[in-house]
Amino acid sequence: MGFSFLPVEQNFYNLFERQAGYAVDAASCFKALVSKGTLDDDMLQKMRDIEHQGDGVTHEILNGLNKTFITPFDREDIHTLAKQLDDIIDMLYTIVNRMRVYKITGIDKNLVQFALVIEESCRAVSCAVKGMRNSKNFAAVSESCVEINRLENVGDAMRDLVLGELFETEKDPITVIKMKEVYQDAETVLDVCEDVAHVVQSILVKQA
Amino acid sequence: MGFSFLPVEQNFYNLFERQAGYAVDAASCFKALVSKGTLDDDMLQKMRDIEHQGDGVTHEILNGLNKTFITPFDREDIHTLAKQLDDIIDMLYTIVNRMRVYKITGIDKNLVQFALVIEESCRAVSCAVKGMRNSKNFAAVSESCVEINRLENVGDAMRDLVLGELFETEKDPITVIKMKEVYQDAETVLDVCEDVAHVVQSILVKQA
Amino acid sequence: MGFSFLPVEQNFYNLFERQAGYAVDAASCFKALVSKGTLDDDMLQKMRDIEHQGDGVTHEILNGLNKTFITPFDREDIHTLAKQLDDIIDMLYTIVNRMRVYKITGIDKNLVQFALVIEESCRAVSCAVKGMRNSKNFAAVSESCVEINRLENVGDAMRDLVLGELFETEKDPITVIKMKEVYQDAETVLDVCEDVAHVVQSILVKQA
After folding, report:
1. Is the separation of the CB atoms in B163 and B187 below 8 Å?
2. A66 contact C CB<8A
3. Where are the alpha helices (DSSP H) in B37-170?
4. Pick the residue with more confidence: C196 or A41?
5. What is the pLDDT of residues C54-95, one digit of tens each?
6. Would you say A61 and A166 are in contact if contact means Cβ atoms under 8 Å apart?
7. Per the CB < 8 Å rule, is A103 touching C164?
8. Is A196 exposed, middle or buried (0-12, 13-18, 19+ CB in 10 A)?
9. Nearest residue of chain C to residue A79 (CA atoms)
10. Is A101–C202 a contact, with Cβ atoms under 8 angstroms apart?
11. Which residues, in sequence order, are CB contacts of A181 under 8 Å at separation 6+?
12. How confident is the model at residue C7, as a pLDDT?
C-alpha cells in the first residue's frame, strides 16, 4: 500500500533529505579532519559552512511547520526530527571547534575510529530519512534504524574502551580533561543518530 | 469519585508499574554494589539485565502509544513519563558502567549515602506510579511526590557537601575528575525522580 | 491588527512578564556578585530568594495550564516558554552555588564579561516576553530576538577564547576543572536565552 503526496508533503520530505545530507557531509568532513590530524582553516571553514546550511534547512522546516496546516506526519514528530538532525550536525561542529580551542593535534586513532562509525551511522540516518517518503520502502527504513542502533552500541563499547585506556595510561590530567570530553562528545553523536532512528520508527508505526 | 477502567488503560498502568518496579530494582542493585565496594561480574550482569528489561517495557509503552487511539491520560504525558522512568534506570546503569570503566573500587561512604537516598526516592516513585490507577489514591500519590521533591533537595545538599570535600581534600586531579562525574550522576538520578513527580502531579491536576 | 484579550490570557502574559523579570533580577545579582569577587551570605540568600520566586511563578503557569481550557497561544509553547525562563534562573543559581561549593573567589575578569552579556541578554528576553502581549509590538519583539541570538554568538566566542586561554595558561588541573565548568555554564545561560527567543519567534509566526 502506498500513500499519495501533496506538494507540501513533498516539500517536508525534500527538506529532511537535505538536512540528513548535511549530516553526512559533516560526518565526512569530521572524518577527513581527524584522519589528517591537523585543523587547517579550509576544513574548519567547510565545517562552519555545513553547520550554517544545516541551520538554514532546520529553520525552513520549523517555519514551514508553523505556517502549514496539514503535514505529512505528526507536527510534533516533524519538530523532533528536524531538531535531532540539526543536533547531529551541531554536535559534530562542536567537537571540531573544541579540538581547535583545546589545540588537539596529531592523529588520534580512537577519534579516527569514532569518525568511521559516525559516518556509517549518518549514512544509515540518511537512508532512513530518504525511505520515509514512500511506504514501499518501510522495510528498508527499518533495517537502517536497526543498523543505527547497532552502531550506537558499537560506539558505547568504543567509548568505554577508550576512556578506560585514557584513565589507565594518560598521566597528564589536562590531557585527560580534554580527550575525555571529546570522546564523550563523539559517542553523543551516535546517541543522537539513535534518537533519529527512534522518531523515524515511531512515525512508521503510526503510518502503518 | 473513582473513574472507570478500559482494558487498554489497565495495560498502560500495568506497564508503568513494571517500569517503576525496575527502577526500584536498579536502585537496590546499585546500593548493594556500592555497599560492597567491588564490581563483581554477577552484579554487573544483573544491572545490565534490569536495564534491558526496563528498555523492553519502555518500548512496549511507546509502541502501545503509537497504536492506541484512546489513552488513560494525555499521550504526551504518557510519553514523558515512560521516558523519565527509563531515564532513572539508564542513569543508574550509566553510573555503574562508569565505575567499571574508571576502575572505581573500595567502599565510598558518599556513594553509599547517595544510594540510600536514591533507593528511597525510587520507592516513592513506585508508590506514586502505582497510585495513579485510581483517583481514591490521589492524596497518597501527592504525598509520594512531596517526598520525592524532599529527597531531591537532600541530594542537592549532599552533592554540594561531597564535591566541596572532594575539591578540598583530594589532591589527585584524575581522581577528582572521576569522582566528580560519578557524584554528579548520582544527584542526577534524584533530579530525574523529581521530573517523574512533576509529570505525575500534572497528570493528577488534569484528572481532578 | 491587534487581537483581543481575555482575562485568562492577561494572566498568562502577566506571569511570563514576572518570570522574565526574575531572570533579569538573577542576572543582575550574578553580575553584582562576580564584580565583587566574594560570595557574601546576603548575596547568596538574594539569589536563593530569586530562584525560589521564579519557581513559584513557573508552578503557577504550569498549574494554570493544566486547569485552563483556552490559552492565548499553543499549550505546548506555554509549557516550553515557562520551562525555559525557569531554566535561565536555575542556571544562574547553579553557577553561583557552584562558585560557593568550589570556593571560587577573587574577581575573574572573564566571569565579569560573561555576566555583562548575560544581563544584556536577559533584558532582551524580558523585552521580547513583554512585547508578546500585543501584536503591535511584534516588530520590536523580533528585534529583541535578533539581539538575543547575537549575544549568544558573542558568548560562544567568549567561551572559546576563555577556555583556550585557560588550557594555555592555567597549570593547576583542579582549577582548570572548576573554571571550565563555570565558564561553560555561563555560556549555557546564553544558550537558554536563545531557546527562549526561538520559542517566542515561533509563537509570533503562528499568530501572524
Report:
1. no
2. yes
3. 41-67, 75-101, 109-131, 138-169
4. C196
5. 999 999 998 888 888 888 888 889 999 999 999 999 999 999
6. no
7. yes
8. buried
9. C202
10. no
11. A98
12. 65
Please give the domain boundaries of chain A with CATH numbers for all domains: 7-207 (1.20.58.220)
Cα–Cα distance measured from residue A144 to residue A140, given in angstroms and rounded to the nearest whole number: 6
**A202 in contact with chain B, both atoms CB, cutoff 8 A:** yes
Q: How many residues does chain C have?
A: 208
* C207 neighbors C73 (Cβ within 8 angstroms): yes
pLDDT digits (tens, 9 = 90+) for C124-177: 999 999 999 988 999 999 999 999 999 999 999 999 999 999 999 999 999 999
Amino acid at A171: K
Integer Cα distance of B150 and B144 in angstroms: 10
Neighboring chains of C (3 or more beta-carbon pairs < 8 A): A, B
| Residue whose C-alpha cell is 572532594 | B166
Q: How far is A39 from chain B (nearest CA, A)?
A: 27
The residue with cell 503509537 is: B66
Q: What is the pLDDT of residues C106-123, one digit of tens each?
A: 999 999 999 999 999 999
- Nearest-angstrom CA–CA distance, C155 and C149: 10
How do residues C2-17 score in pLDDT, each as one tens digit?
444 456 666 899 999 9
CA pair distance B163, C181, nearest whole angstrom: 13
* Residue in A62, A67, A101 nearest the CB of C160: A101
User: Which chains would you list as touching B if contact means 3+ CB atom pairs under 8 Å?
Assistant: A, C
pLDDT interval class at A109 (50, 70, 90) = very high
CA distance B123 to B116: 11
Please name the residue that has the C-alpha cell 577519534: A111
How do residues C15-33 score in pLDDT, each as one tens digit? 999 999 999 999 999 999 9
C-alpha cell of residue A121: 551511522
In a mutational test of the B interface, the residue from A79, A80, A159, A202 whose CB has the highest number of chain B CBs within 10 Å is: A202
Nine-digit cell at C139? 516588530
> Which pTM does this prediction carry?
0.93
Nearest to B174 among A160, A167, A202 (CB): A167
- Measured between CB atoms, which of A164, A173, A202 is closest to B177? A173
The dihedrals phi and psi of B172, each to the nearest 5 degrees, come to -85, 110
User: Are the beta carbons of A174 and C177 separated by less than 8 Å?
Assistant: no
Contact between A12 and A58 (Cβ < 8 Å) = no
Residues of chain A numbered 73-102 and touching chain C (CB < 8 Å)? 76, 97, 100-102
- Residues 6+ positions from C141 with CB-CB distance below 8 Å: C127, C128, C131, C132, C200, C204
- Closest residue by Cα to residue C149 from C118, C110, C194: C194
